[in-house]
Amino acid sequence: MRKKPNPNKFKTPKNYRVGDKVIVLTGKFKGKYGNVQTYPNKKGRILVEGQNTTYRHVKNTNDPAKPSGRVLKENPLHASNVRVVCPNCSLPVKPRIRVDIIEEDGKRVKEKSRVCRRCGQAFPPVKK
Ligand SMILES: [Zn+2]
Fold first, then answer.
1. Domain for residue 109, yes or no?
2. 14, 52, 58, 86: which could form a disulfide with 116 (CB 3.0–4.6 Å)?
3. Does residue 79 lie within any of the structural domains?
4. pLDDT above 70: percentage of residues in the chain
5. How far apart are CA 120 and CA 63, in angstroms?
């Protein structure tokens, strides 16, 4: 009998945000920097601007808006092969998520923020 896929196997990593500067750790584009373009998908893969590119041979259509010929395309990278670059100490880190409980109008509210593991400084919030 076929085993059911474990739903926790492809847990989407939550410590990546669109616009983060990341460094690629493995493969052909090892050591290169880029900005995150998409939030991790179900398989934990993210698209990094200008990284993990390949050429696609696209057939010419009569639509001038669509590019044809050899077209550069970005491919998603697995989030484990990518580290966020800390804006404070500029080292590649896996951000830790810190939960602060603050009192707001008599109510206790949880506030989540991303913190660098190496220097302990909080990441500035990313604008949407
Ligand atoms: Zn840091």
1. yes
2. 86
3. yes
4. 93
5. 52
Mean pLDDT for the chain?
A: 85
Centre of ligand 1 to C-alpha 91, Å, is 6
- Tokens representing residue 54 in the block: 């390949």
Residue located via tokens 């990546």: 16
How distant, in Å, are the alpha carbons of 5, 50, 93, 116 from that of 75? 25, 9, 22, 27
Residue 52's pLDDT is: 86
Taking the centre of ligand 1 as the mean of its atom positions, its distance from the CA of residue 5, in whole angstroms, is 36
- Cβ atoms of 115 and 98 within 8 Å: the answer is yes
Report the 3 state secondary structure along 52-108: CEEEEEECCCCCCCCCCEEEEEECCEEHHHEEEECCCCCCEECCEEEEEEEEECCEE
The total number of structural domains in the chain stands at 1
Q: Is 64 left (phi over 0), alpha (psi -120 to 50) or beta?
A: alpha
Q: Which structural domain range is residue 90 located in? A: 21-115
Cα-to-centroid distance, 61 and ligand 1 (Å): 49
